[in-house]
Write the structure tokens for this entry.
Amino acid sequence: MEPPDVCALDGFLAGVVLQRPAVPAAQWLPFMTDIEGRTAPAGIDVEPVRRVALRRHAQLDAAIAARRWFDPWVFELDDATSPSEAVMPWVAGFSLAMEHFPALMQAKATRTLEPLAVLYSHLDPDDLEDADELKAEIETLEPPRDLAEAVEDLVRCTLLLADVSRPLPTDPRPRAAGRSRRLAPSPGGPARRR
């Protein structure tokens, strides 16, 4: 058994929440205690992890559905750590979700390229197999200046991906003259380019 760290677990859950159709808990819960999704050996109580994972999944699901800010579980490391190194475990967990539940990756929507490139720019390029278009997009990006910017990118890109996999419903009712209603805050502008 090889459990993910808490940052990877959070990124994994964000990746699961983005999938449509929704992934049943029985399919993703095994990954909370083992990155291969293997069943825990007899005698190991996984119930506390299961409860925390279900609660965090519900929090992320609500925030992403409403296009609200959420705080990714990312640790600020020592001063010598780059922003990419700090967010890499979260992105690795997100990537693991995309590997096991690939509906979003299979959408091949042009609107997924930039947010995925921003996220995957924190991974080793050698880990991106058969992803030439993604690698080319990554080459055009500026790295984040600091951890706050890197964390903002995690949230912004997750919400941009939600616009593809979980589009907000449009309101068919006519609006009163002079009034406009925003369904959700904008998740942010384009990525930083070189």
